[in-house]
UniProtKB/TrEMBL annotation:
Lineage: Bacteria, Bacillati, Bacillota, Bacilli, Lactobacillales
The protein's name in its UniProt record: Tyrosine recombinase XerC
Family per record: Belongs to the 'phage' integrase family.
One of the GO biological process terms: DNA integration
Domain Tyr recombinase: 173-381
Record PROSITE patterns: CB (PS51900), TYR_RECOMBINASE (PS51898)
Length: 388
């Protein structure tokens, strides 16, 4: 194809059997490498000048640096990795987000370019989920992909989010109950203590104090320090999940904290800690300070797991067994909600409760002072007064 220069820089003409057309060619550099932006089959010089102006704008704003042809799967990998690296997702959050993405979006939209997502098709498909799930669940599902696409827009990988602000209808599916009453808790706790041996009841009971289940798994032998009053101060600075069974960092520095266990939990820890050392010795191990505290030695445990840290599915199995026995459905995360609710009822200051849950750093720093022990103890004591 032979191009003829015009009086306008970077605009050319060329002839075809269908007549005369305009062609735009503009060079630019990315990291020292020469690139070209081109556009052909433009019918008028005015159209060509408009296209050139848009190319100039994109060059000025570094928009050609970004690949706007990424698929949903490709950007999900970029997005999720960034969320983990910057600490915006905790290990538990990572599992939740990946579960939603893999279940609802990967097969459906994974190979679709983000810019080619049809708003109408997406809205219709998402609303079909209302026959299976509550409106809150569908909204949560939508929020995962919507947040990713908003991130792509902010980072200039996408011009606009095609699904932002879509309509989500109503659902006849009832919202699952995520809270338990004080009376239900007491029944469930009595059942747990009767059903489990003292070692694994200790593991379950620690969730009553606001721990994420990943934090319960992440307690190490050196995490538990016995204070002069016989109670244990437990440092929470590690977590284990299905995706990270060998442990890893907490969500943020604000998630790293410690708690002071109540008297009953402390008495149970007096038993559980030496029990862990005995289990380890039984299977040819010696526990060091950085080894995880709670080990596998339960009935029907797989041989390859014996004496090793509890598998990250075990706490869900325990909760299901207890719930089935007493007829009250409870999950580890519901215990976290229960701790927060009862703490507020007991009058614990909101900033203290937020810190106890690992949501802020308004108290409980890395330095273990007497004042901080008192604050941590007061949160636990206030909670225990209500439930007892």
């Amino acid at each position: 194809m032979k191009y003829q220069k015009t009086k306008y820089r970077n605009i050319y003409t060329y002839e075809t059997t269908k007549g005369k057309f305009y062609h735009v060619r503009r060079s630019y550099y990315i990291n020292g490498d020469k690139k070209e932006a081109t556009k052909s089959r433009l019918k008028t010089v005015a159209e060509a000048r408009s296209v050139l102006a848009e190319i100039e704008r994109k060059i000025e704003n570094n928009e050609f640096t970004y690949n706007k042809n990424l698929t949903v799967d490709q950007y999900w990998n970029i997005y999720s990795e960034n969320r983990l690296n910057t600490g915006r997702w905790s290990p538990d959050t990572e599992i939740n987000k990946y579960s939603i993405y893999n279940t609802h979006f990967k097969k459906w939209l994974g190979n679709t370019k983000m810019k080619n997502i049809s708003r109408i098709d997406y809205e219709n498909s998402l609303n079909k989920l209302l026959s299976q799930f509550s409106r809150n669940t569908v909204k949560q599902t939508h929020s995962v992909l919507n947040a990713m696409l908003n991130d792509a827009v902010r980072n200039k990988f996408l011009d606009d989010n095609p699904i932002d602000g879509i309509y989500i209808g109503q659902s006849d599916v009832e919202i699952s109950q995520k809270r338990i009453s004080l009376e239900e808790f007491k029944i469930w706790d009595r059942c747990a203590e009767d059903l489990l041996d003292s070692y694994y009841y200790t593991f379950v009971r620690l969730t009553y104090l606001g721990l994420r289940k990943s934090e319960d798994y992440g307690i190490k032998t050196a995490s538990c320090v016995r204070l002069e009053n016989g109670r244990y101060r437990i440092k929470l600075d590690d977590s284990r999940t299905k995706g990270r069974p060998d442990g890893g960092r907490m969500k943020t520095k604000g998630s790293e904290r410690y708690l002071v266990a109540d008297e009953k939990t402390s008495r149970l820890l007096d038993y559980a800690i030496p029990k862990s050392h005995a289990i380890a010795k039984k299977y040819g191990r010696i526990l060091g300070p950085d080894d995880y505290l709670f080990l596998s030695d339960y009935k029907n445990c797989q041989k390859k797991l014996l004496g090793k840290p509890l598998p990250t599915s075990r706490i869900n199995t325990m909760f299901k067994q207890i719930s089935k026995e007493c007829g009250i459905y409870v999950t580890p995360h519901m215990m976290r909600h229960f701790f927060a609710t009862q703490g507020q009822i007991a009058g614990v200051p909101i900033e203290h409760m937020a810190a106890a849950l690992g949501h802020s750093t308004s108290y409980m720093t890395q330095k273990y002072t007497h004042i901080e022990d008192e604050v941590a103890s007061s949160v636990t004591d206030s909670f225990m007064r209500v439930i007892n």
